[in-house]
Each structure stands twice: as structure tokens, then as C-alpha cells.
Amino acid sequence: MPKDVPLAVRRKLYACILERASASSARYERGILSYEVNVKIVADRVDRDLARYRDAMRLIVVDDAIQSGAATFRGTRILVHQIAGLLAQGVEIPELQQDYPRLTPEMIAAAPIYARAHPRRGRPRKPTWRAGDASNYEGPQHGA
User: What residues contact 122, with CB distance under 8 A and at least 6 apart?
Assistant: First the structure.
């Protein structure tokens, strides 16, 4: 649905979509504006997208003990957002599989789905090794 559709209209149409058994289309009119949505098409698309999301989530784990809680692919330490970012930049799938041999085609397909559903927000987390006081850091010790 276009982003300029008013919130009241969206709510009315979404309520009709949720009740898809009772109607084949949802219609809303307000002044000169008129919206009509084929509920079956929308509901089928939502069902399909939800199934793809659930399949993607079976491949992804968020665990504080792995990569500081960042989303990774199950059984690996490969970051989901990193793969989604590389795909968005246009990196080819064979190149990704060469750089990440444990990356399966299902994982590659799951990365953008997860990234759209869980966008990064705010500032990046500080690495755990930066949690300490940097004023006490003496640098690398060479030879003793």
C-alpha cells in the first residue's frame, strides 16, 4: 500500500483483510479518495511472505554468546546483516559462496528477508573489548 495512504484508511483496510472470509474485497471511500483492495490477493501474499519469514528464522539464531547477540546463521558465525548488506551492494552469489563456503543458497535467500524484518537501528554496539578504560591501555608488548 502506498505510504501516503492515511492511517485511518490503512486501519480500515487491514481490518477487512483480517476478516477475509467475509469479503472478497475491502473498499473505503472518503471524499474524492477511494481505495479498493482485493483481500484474497493481499492475504495470499501475506501468507506467502510469512511462510518465507518463518523458513528464514529456522536458519538464524540470536544468542548473546555468539557474536555478542548479533543475528548469525545457525551453526556458523556468519552475520546475517553482513550478508544482506553485501547482497544489497550487488555482490554475486558465487562470490559470496566462495568467500563463505558454509553459506548455503537457503541462507543467502534468508538474509534479505531477515534484514527487512529486523532493520538495524541506532548506533552500532561497542565491541566488548572496548568496554574497559582506554586510558590504561599500554599498547602491544614487544619482546620481554
Answer: none
Cβ(133)–Cβ(99) below 8 Å? no
2 and 13 in contact (C-beta within 8 Å)? no
The helix (H) or strand (E) run that includes residue 137 is none
Alpha helix segments (H runs only) across the chain:
7-18, 39-58, 80-88, 93-99, 105-117
Tens digit of each residue's pLDDT (9 = 90 or more) over 22-78 = 567 666 676 777 777 777 777 788 889 999 999 999 999 999 888 888 999 999 999
Q: Are 81 and 71 in contact (CB under 8 A)?
A: yes
List of domains in the chain? 1-47 (no CATH), 59-119 (1.10.10.10)
Give this prediction's pTM. 0.64
Q: What is the DSSP string of 71-111?
A: EEETTS--BHHHHHHHHHTT--HHHHHHH-TT--HHHHHHH
